[in-house]
Each structure stands twice: as structure tokens, then as C-alpha cells.
Amino acid sequence: xxxxxxxxxxxxxxxxxxxxxxxxxxxxxxxxxxxxxxxxxxxxxxxxxxxxxxxxxxxxxxxxxxxxxxxxxxxxxxxxxxxxxxxxxxxxxxxxxxxxxxxxxxxxxxxxxxxxxxxxxxxxxxxxxxxxxxxxxxxxxxxxxxxxxxxxxxxxxxxxxxxxxxxxxxxxxxxxxxxxxxxxxxxxxxxxxxxxxxxxxxxxxxxxxxxxxxxxxxxxxxxxxxxxxxxxxxxxxxxxxxxxxxxxxxxxxxxxxxxxxxxxxxxxxxxxxxxxxxxxxxxxxxxxxxxxxxxxxxxxxxxxxxxxxxxxxxxxxxxxxxxxxxxxxxxxxxxxxxxxxxxxxxxxxxxxxxxxxxxxxxxxxxxxxxxxxxxxxxxxxxxxxxxxxxxxxxxxxxxxxxxxxxxxxxxxxxxxxxxxxxxxxxxxxxxxxxxxx
Length: 437
Ligand code: ADP
Ligand code: ZN
What we know:
GMP Synthetase, Chain A, domain 3, single chain, 2 domains, disordered N terminus, Rossmann fold
């Protein structure tokens, strides 16, 4: 689909690169000046590092600026990083608090317009149009997922069904009765929706739904296959975080080879997480983002702790904005077991290469006789569950092998009955840490 010609809103996705760099530089200079003049935290940090807004003469000069981190938002809780008077702030959100105390983010009306614009461009890139009905099954409220997707759908002109999370049977009923074509939610919640539909005798593949926009948590290629096959849809990965704006920082196009980052609003860098050194395009490291056009709470060189790489090669879709790779891991999620660094996403990728297992799993960490242990609980389908012991043992062996080949550790596997692992409505909780500290 040629979005460029069909909708002028998406023209920025196709801007010649030199023009885009000029836009970025102008916006960067303006936002750095704004942050310096209006936020004591940024002014102090820049002064300590001997850098002034007028030192930003090229895009590379961004490297002179100090990083900011989640702890800075916590330390200045709630409004210490606000760069405009409260009378200009029209909305507040807070991060879901996956990793501790919530942090607060603020938006001016212009900021909300930018957010709706990037979401609109993203949804259009997934092939959704004003003729579609889109169900938003991310949580509404302080979490940015619900309202972020909602305003993007409205900006697109689609018909939005603000279902929020929960009441799963009703979600399925709405999808069927309204003829919903697209859905925005976490991938783990959509898996749950497919299961629940089945339990009430509805095969999601028979419904008009054709597009799923999934994000807010890491998900593997194996998960994508389960969602696409289970519901007869095309699944798109969407990335974002509250500190930067919410969902809509980056999103896949129909090529599914990485997520286009809306570079005209969010400037990406990849750094070595240990040294802070900026890495060239293509190399894996920690994503650092600078908001180029968010005024209530600008973020300068924010360390996301999300690990990915920048894909600079042109995309077949023709968009000139660069892509980031699937978020391979969030460094907060990492756990160390017997001296080995393990990410839950590695376990998911390995697990789902084994045919016949579901993406409902739970990693349980325990201490036994002073030693750390991992036990992976995996739900299996009713058919497999009632199979002979030999079949189950064989499946267990395959999972152990698949996981060992990825993380280098032999872990214990427990196959559990269908519907015994708690389902999440938002971000799935994949790890239960019961180790003695
Ligand atoms: P919290 O930090 O409390 O989870 P957010 O709701 O703002 O707050 O979540 C943002 C984080 O969610 C990102 O930093 C990233 O780790 C994760 N995330 C968001 N989208 C994706 C995605 N598509 N793939 C992997 N991780 C994602
Ligand atoms: Zn593309």
C-alpha cells in the first residue's frame, strides 16, 4: 500500500534523509534550549558536564549531552522535570511500575497531538484505515497504552472500541458483534483472548479481525506465529515507553523487518551499556532516546535499558525513517543464575521452537541447598496432557535441550495442566523469584 500518496499525514515517513536530519537538528537545538532554560535538573547536569545549548551545532553534538535515567524521574517525582507551567499541562500519565515506584509524565496539548500523529502514522503503516473498527484492549488509565492507542485510532479516523482490559468474554463478544478488524493489546493478552474465544465456541479465524498491533512487553517470533495462526491475522510489533511518550515510538510496517522509529520526533542512539560509548548503526546495545518535540517533559538522552540495534538500510516499504530491531531484552528483566545472565525472552524463544507447547509459561527461581535453580512451568494442550508418560517425557527432553542450547544451562521443566498458569491482562509476569536473598 502506498501510504505516502493516500495520506499526506504520513509524508514525514518518506522525507529525504538530508531533509529529515535538518528537521532533527532544528528540533534538537530548540528542545535542548527549552530543557536547559526550564528544568533545573537538565541545567545542572549540563553545567556539570560543561556543555551549553549553543554547543549543539550538529546532530553528532548530542553526544556532548549527559544521559538521563529512570532514577532521575523518580528523584524528581512528581513534577520536577516539568518544563512548562502546570496551566499548560493537559494530561498526566504514569508508568505501569513494572520495575518499582511509578514515574509521572506530563503532556501539553501539542505533545498529545504529536503522540496521536505518530500513532496514526503507525496504524496506517499496519494497513488500518478510517474504514476499520479497532478495539483497544490495553488498559485505560494512568498506563499510556489505552489512551495512546485510542487517540491514534481517532486521529486515523477509524472507529475505536475502547474496551480496555478485562472482561475477556465480553471482549470476544464485542469483536464478533461489532465486526472488529483490528486490535491493540499486549501479545500475552491476545493469546488469552484467542483461548477464551475457543472456550466459548468461537474460532477467532472466522471473525473479520485481520490486524493485531501488539506491544508493551517483549514477544518472540514463536509467539507471533501462535497469534497469527490462532486468529488468522497479521501481527505488528509496536514499541514505546511512558518516559518518551507512550506507545508509538516505533512500529513495524508490512515488511515486518524491524520497527520504523518516528525519528522526526524521537532521536535514537545505541550505546554500549557498560561504557556509555555510542555504537555505530547495526550494532546491538542499549537504546537511548531524545524527544525532539515534546515540551511538557522533554527527555534528553534517556537510557531506556532496552536492548536492540538500529537498522539503517532502506526498508522495502520506501519509508526513509530508520528502523530498530525487535527489543531483544530489557536489562531490568535479566536475572543471574549460577553466574549466567538470563533474559526471560531467551527462554521464550527457545521454548516456542518446540512443537506442541503453548506460550503460557512461568519461570520460577528458587534456592535449594544454597544453590539457585530455575524451574520452567509450561502449559500444554489438553490433548498432549492426557498423552502417555513417554510422550510427555519426550516433550520435556526437547524443551530442556532447546533451552540449554540458548542459555547454556540445563533447567528443570514441569509440564502443567491447561489453564493453570495465571493469565495477565496487561504485561505478562514471566518470572517468579522465590530465591532466598
Ligand atoms: P514500565 O517501565 O513500568 O513497564 P511502560 O509501560 O512505559 O513502563 O513500559 C515501557 C517498556 O515496555 C519499554 O521500556 C520496554 O521495556 C517494554 N516494551 C514496550 N513495547 C515493547 C515491545 N514492542 N517489545 C518489547 N518490549 C516492549
Ligand atoms: Zn518499512
